[in-house]
Amino acid sequence: MSDLGSEELEEEGENDLGEYDGERNEAGERHGHGKARLPNGDTYEGSYQHGKRHGQGIYKFKSGARYIGEYVKNKKHGHGTFIYPDGSRYEGEWADDRRHGYGVYCYVNNDTYTGEWFAHQRHGQGTYFYAETGSKYVGTWVNGQQEGMAELIHLNHRYQGKFLNKNPVGPGKYVFDIGCEQHGEYRLTDVERGEEEEEEEVTLMTVVPKWKATSITELALWTPTLPEEQPPADGTIQEEAPGPEGGGEPAEDDQALADLSEGEADLTRPGEDNEDATREEGREDGQEELRYGAIDQE
Known about the structure:
Histone H3 K4-specific methyltransferase SET7/9 N-terminal domain, two-stranded antiparallel sheet, 18 strands, elongated, meiosis, MORN
């Protein structure tokens, strides 16, 4: 989903003074606490410093949007909450009028993103929760797109692997709650579709990642590896913690599930539950289409 927001809700600049009721300094500048009604119909109440919004304040747009948080020299900077006209909201860190740092964005369709931001875009580590299906993407983001190592968690299984340009690529595995894993890789496949345009046949190519399974194994439980402790110099040996019960030879693999073949497996792509779930994202000047598992960033 896109999360365009306050960049399209311009605040009045320092020269658009409007009406003001509040404290001033010796030079006559707005300085201290005050209330202002600006020429465009917006209002601001909070701290000023040398004529500029500076410190804690509440800015209300005539559209119904509002910002509650910190300012530095007329710009949103620090911690603040921005509530958009459609009810979506962002709460977190700001820098130079942009979402920057750590924050939580709650969309109008109840999806949420929790994580790092850079220059108004999802960037770094973050978790995107899909409210309609209960699935979530946990991993890295680059310039608003799912990219890097991540885990896509569904209700009864999860996919672990690498993403690039919003799509899974390369080796990965599906982990099923019934106690098995399917290993394989996503390969980019060209899908052709023909269209007629001005009585000429035009063939368009669409690149779609396709899952190819290679093996099915028992669930691999991860356990940390601790460094071996050296015995004390005086020759005494400390008592070791007992190992896990059932130690010894590993158990044999369970019989492979009949419904999971080792060849081509038409598993649902990460982010899909047998069909594309089209989502509407909240933004103040309109809504845009989102396909589940592939988030469009403007």
